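Subject: design request, 457 residues
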């Protein structure tokens, strides 16, 4: 059985939905599909929530009216007449969901408070609409499509906004997916959301539909995961900014995970973890160019070049803490990490000297509180508007000359941090935001363009 996942741009309008249904149909009976909200919908929902919180209920409701209209426009393409009898189920779901959404927004604006729990109820609406309505459109074109509500299967803890799946429970609940699949139905579920032990809706965090797909794949015993997006696989670097970037044929799980963590937006970083657990190959493919092979991600690859890709993440913050105690004092690092643990903020890159430590974080949330706590340990310096650049590959430690070549390409840029060695897959540096694109371009030219074309990159 295959699990396919289609992202927001793949779901952007009626034509895209027809394309998606075609791809599902061609994949074969029993296929499980996970979909995102239509493009822009999750952002619009988050905006509506914020606008409602600031007391502008009318403005928030006009956003939800827009969401209703765009979904109605898709239904028009499939059903024609708004009153067609076979459109009733779709109409009712759309009307009821928007009504429920408006009630949440009324609550938010009345209280002037937007809790993570309310935000999850609101932001998950996009997937609740897209998945259910896609099933109705599938039925309309003659497919045996079945909707399964992700809240019934993807059971999580109650950390709203970044819920953690309860894998054993999801595996139990996935029986419904397996049963429909064995009957040859096309199962369609919404990505991004699930529910906690009280049945309250939770979300996995932005971009979480990829993760949903791999969770469902693990739980339902799938043998392939296909992430369908608007680019043909994972690239050697972001092709929107870096000239000559190209699609990579194969990546190992480790390389893909490093790439996703260090900025490649094509895949949510957590997607790989369930796939690794049961060695399920993940393909990244292009909905708009379905015959392109895309990228295959698996336990090992036939890679011939050590550097496989260059990822980058802008707008990160570097925090440096200089110990106020004497040299050779122990316990400094542990106190620093306790602070991050307390605030549940993860750190990407760490470098240390005897008396100081620098680390990068990519979220600004809770930063003020973290700084307050760190100031009890030492002198804190903050450098904003930094960019993290990572060379990702295989055997980077064993291969000679990689660091020399990298630093040669970066010779004209000040480098704030350097990290290599904790894994064989990664060499990272931090530079100023404004230098990032040119620095990555230089690295990309050095490792990919001014080199003989590697056979199996
Ligand atoms: N719709 C959600 C988002 O935009 C989840 C996803 O598409 O992966 O973050």
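Subject: RE: design request

Done. Sequence follows.
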């Amino acid at each position: 059985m295959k699990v396919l996942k289609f992202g927001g741009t793949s779901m952007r309008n009626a034509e895209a939905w027809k394309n998606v249904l075609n791809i599902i149909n061609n994949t074969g009976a029993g296929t499980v599909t996970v979909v995102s909200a239509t493009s822009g919908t999750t952002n619009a929902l988050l905006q509506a929530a914020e606008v409602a919180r600031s007391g502008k209920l009318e403005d928030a409701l006009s956003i939800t009216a827009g969401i209703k209209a765009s979904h109605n426009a898709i239904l028009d393409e499939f059903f024609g007449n708004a009153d067609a009898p076979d459109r009733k189920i779709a109409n009712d779901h759309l009307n009821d969901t928007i009504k429920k959404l408006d009630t949440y927004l009324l609550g938010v604006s009345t209280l002037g408070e937007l809790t993570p729990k309310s935000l999850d109820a609101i932001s998950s609406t996009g997937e609740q609409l897209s998945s259910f309505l896609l099933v109705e459109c599938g039925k309309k074109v003659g497919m045996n499509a079945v909707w399964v509500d992700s809240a019934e299967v993807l059971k999580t803890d109650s950390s709203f906004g970044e819920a953690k799946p309860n894998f054993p429970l999801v595996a139990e609940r996935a029986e419904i997916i397996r049963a429909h699949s064995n009957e040859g139905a096309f199962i369609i579920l919404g990505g991004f959301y699930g529910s906690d032990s009280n049945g309250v809706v939770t979300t996995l965090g932005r971009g979480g539909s990829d993760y949903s797909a791999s969770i469902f794949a693990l739980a339902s015993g799938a043998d392939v995961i296909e992430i369908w997006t608007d680019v043909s696989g994972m690239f050697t670097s972001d092709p929107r900014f870096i000239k000559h970037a190209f699609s990579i044929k194969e990546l190992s799980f480790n390389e893909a995970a490093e790439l996703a963590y260090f900025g490649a937006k094509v895949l949510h970083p957590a997607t790989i973890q369930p796939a690794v657990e049961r060695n399920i190959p993940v393909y990244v493919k292009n909905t708009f160019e379905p015959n392109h092979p895309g990228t295959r991600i698996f336990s090992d690859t036939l890679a011939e070049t050590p550097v496989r890709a260059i990822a980058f993440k802008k707008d990160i913050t570097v925090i440096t803490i200089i110990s106020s105690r004497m040299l050779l004092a122990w316990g400094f690092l542990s106190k620093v990490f306790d602070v991050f643990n307390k605030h549940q903020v993860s750190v990407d890159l760490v470098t240390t000297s005897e008396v100081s430590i620098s680390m990068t974080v990519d979220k600004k949330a809770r930063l003020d509180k973290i700084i307050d706590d760190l100031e009890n340990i030492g002198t804190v310096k903050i450098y904003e508007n930094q960019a993290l650049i990572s060379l990702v590959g295989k055997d980077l430690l064993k291969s000679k000359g990689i660091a020399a070549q990298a630093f040669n390409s970066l010779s004209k840029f000040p480098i704030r941090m350097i990290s290599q060695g904790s894994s064989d897959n990664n060499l990272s540096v931090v530079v100023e935001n404004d230098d990032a694109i040119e620095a990555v371009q230089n690295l990309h030219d050095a490792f990919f363009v001014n080199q003989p074309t590697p056979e199996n990159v």
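The chain has a mean pLDDT of 93.
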